[in-house]
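Page 42, continued from yesterday. The earlier attempt failed because a stray header line got pasted into the input along with the sequence. Redoing it now with the clean sequence only.
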Amino acid sequence: MRKIAIVAEYDPSFEPHVATNRAIEHSCAQLSLKVGYEWVSTEDISEELFRDYSGLWVAPGSPYRNLEKTIWAIQFAREGGFPTIGTCGGFQHIMLEYARNVIGIQGATHAEYDPYASDLFIAPLSCSLAGRSMALSLNSGSKVAKFYGSESATEQYYCNFSVNPEYIEIIKSGPIRISGSDSEGELRVVEYPEHPFFIGTLFVPQARSRPGSPHPLISAFVQAVQSAKQGASRDAFGAREL
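This time it went through. Structure tokens are written below.
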């Protein structure tokens, strides 16, 4: 059976974590698929993660215990074509890995870990989005819009941090695609068009999943995991040493 590694520090009292479990179950039930999942602390990330699992979900709940291992896992998944989704804090760390390893901002930092750093790539939002539901515009032709079957949606947020607007233009210069924004034009969804499945959302799609009505992004992710090759070797990916 294919399994998803959900990377974060699991807290059963944190609703987005409980919703993550439920969303996978909703999608599997609707699609008649058997895809399992297990939570993996960021402290326990190793190469075994990519041998034992067929998909990676970088979940809400940062700051994580081990930032560098989280960045390593995201890089490994990106370079190896490993099905990956990052939501809320996971989105933020996908963007941080992109900054450091793709567009060359090696000192890129997240304000949760070092609020006084000179290269705050992930910075506090001017207005917290925690607990808010907001309209979302999806770019025509994007994978995300295809999965939704629409160019608009309403999604729920739990976050206080996002990409520093000062870096938007340099973000656009690289291979990642901004595939969705809110009503104010702020970046909210990204994807790698050439990757089998690699999507990051600042919102928490799992919060809107329901029995009999799973979230389309989660269903697309589960299908990608089901179709993925079981396990992987580091040499095939060429990722850096952990």
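Notes: The two ends are 27 Å apart (CA to CA).
Reminder to self: strip header lines before submitting.
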